[in-house]
Amino acid sequence: MQHGTLEKKNNSASSVIPNPMNKTFNWFCDNFMPKIREKAEEFWNTETDCRLIAMFDDENMLFRGEEFFVTRIKPTEARKKQNDDDILLKLSKESVQMLLENSLGSNNKTFSLENLTELEAKVLTEFNNVLGKSFMPLILDESAQNNTLKNRYNLLFYLKSENGSIGKLLISIPAKLLAPKEVEVTGYDFDINAYAASTTRVDILAGTSKTTLQDLKLLEKGDIVVLENSKLSKMTLKMDGETKTIRVNPDPALIVNINGHGGNTMSANTKDMWDTIQVEIGAEFEKVKITLGELKQISEGLVVDIGSVYENKIDLKVENKIIASGELVIINDRYGVRIDAIHKNEKTIAEANANSIKPAEQSIDDDTDSSNEDLDSDEFDYSDFDVEDEDI
Known about the structure:
Structural class: alpha+beta
Largest sheet: 9 strands, antiparallel
Number of domains: 2
C-alpha cells in the first residue's frame, strides 16, 4: 500500500482473539499480587513491587530455553505422591541475582543457577515455600475440586526491587485447585493520547534513482548521488511491511551548489555492454525513532517536521544491500546523498547480483566456433549492429 491510511492486513474486524482466562485475570491480580508483595518484603527486608503481566495455558510458549530456579510445593499432605498436582514456583536467573544480592549483600558477585551454593539454594527454596504457603487459603478442599480440569494456570509476575532491578516469577497451579471468579472489566476508557510520547522505530526512504553498473563501480567518497525519484516535500515511511507517503518540511540547510558538476560518465571506449545495465538504487535512513504521537499525525496526513531525521546517517542500497553511506543533501528540486563511506563487500555483491545475466555473454563467446557452422542466414546476426567510427 503506497497511499492512504494504514490498513489492516486482513478483513477481520479485530486481530484480538478473546481468551476465556481474561475474565479471571483481575481475580489473580487481587488475590496473588498483594501476597507476593507482602511476603517478599518480609522475607528480604526490602521494598519490593510485584505486577501480574500475563496468564497463559502453555508455560513453555514464552520461556522455552530460559533458566529458572524451580520449587515444587504439595497443596495438601494427602497429595504428596501426586506430582501432577504440584504448585510450581519458578524464579528467573534475573530474580535469583536480584534477591540474593538483597539477602547476602554481594553486589559484585554474579549468582549462577548452575553453581549455586547449598546456602543460596536453601534461601531461594525457603522464599518459594513462604510464597506457596500464602496461597494455601485459596486452595479448594478436595471435595470441592473439579478433577475433570487438566489444564494449569500459568501466571507471569515481574518483581522489582527498590534499586530498580527486575526479575520474573512464574507460578503454575493446577486449575482444579482454584475457583477464580470471572470479573468483567467495565468503565475502562482507553486513551491513545496517553501513549503519545511512547516511541517506536520505523524506516524512512528519501527516494530512488537508476544508475548503471559502470557508475556503481566508480562510486567514491565525496560523490553525490541524485535521487531522481524524490520530492522535497515527501518521503516514504515503512513499518511492519507497510509503506505510506508522508509530507515533510525540507531543511534549507541541506541545499548544496554543484555548478559545473557533471558527475562520472562512462568511458567512450568501454566495450563491456553489461556495464550499461541499469539498476535501482535507493536511499534509506538508519532506523528512525519516532513517537506514537508523530505516527498518528502522519496517518492523518499532516505535514510532519522531521528535522532531527535529517541528521541521521542515510544508506544507499542496491538489491537490499548497503553499498554506501553518507548525508542527505538537496540538489535543485531533488534529494541526493553525499557519500562519505563505501561498503566495498556489499557493493561487490550488489554488482554481482545485478550482473547475474553476464554468464549468457560468456556462453556466446565460448560457443562461437561450433555455433556459427549451424546458423541459418535468417537467424539474428549481431554484425547488423556494427557501428563504424565515422558514424559516431
